[in-house]
Design goal:
The protein is an alpha+beta fold and about 160 residues long. It has 2 domains: about 80 residues, no CATH class; about 55 residues, Nucleic acid-binding proteins (OB fold (Dihydrolipoamide Acetyltransferase, E2P)), CATH 2.40.50.
Length: about 160
């Protein structure tokens, strides 16, 4: 470890910061970047004042804890906006979809077909073949309601024989 002593401690902290920043780019997770910042700050302190290794490690720990908690607090309030807020909410994506009853609803529970799969569902009693609409979900169970009957625009016309 003689080569380690030949490199200044400030450079070691800066190299550690660069390595962690590079790892954050390869494996994004918004965590290593804050440790990287802590390593850079520790490296700057060591470059300004030659301090003992225990103080260096302590300052790295303090900067790490502070930067991680500050980042978590900032993300809690500002968050990261997404173009698809329902990306990881499969049940939420199904709200508004039309389903067909495959097992009659009795006592508020039954099975429905959506696309090529069947789902457990809860809702008002309905016979096999009835069309329902997904209104929500409770875990892997869809919450359904009767589909509203709609017709083409305009007033319904009464046909008369003359």
């Amino acid at each position: 470890m003689d080569w380690l002593d030949s490199i200044g401690h400030a450079w070691l902290w800066l190299i550690l910061g660069v390595v962690m920043a590079g790892a954050e780019m390869l494996i994004p997770g918004y965590f290593l970047i804050w440790l990287s910042i802590a390593a850079f700050l520790t490296g700057m302190i060591v470059a300004i004042a030659d301090v003992d290794i225990a103080i260096q490690v302590l300052s790295f720990v303090v900067f790490s804890v502070f930067s991680v908690f500050a980042a978590r607090r900032w993300f809690d309030y500002h968050g990261i906006e997404t173009t698809d807020p329902l990306m990881n909410d499969r049940g939420g994506r199904l709200v508004g979809e039309s389903v067909v009853v495959t097992q009659a609803f009795e006592g508020g529970q039954g099975r429905v077909r959506l696309g090529d799969s069947e789902w457990l569902a809860r809702g008002a009693d309905a016979p096999v073949g009835a069309r329902l609409v997904v209104t929500g979900h409770d875990g892997a169970v869809l919450v359904v309601a009767p589909a509203e009957v709609t017709h083409m625009g305009g007033e319904p016309k009464v046909l008369s024989q003359d």
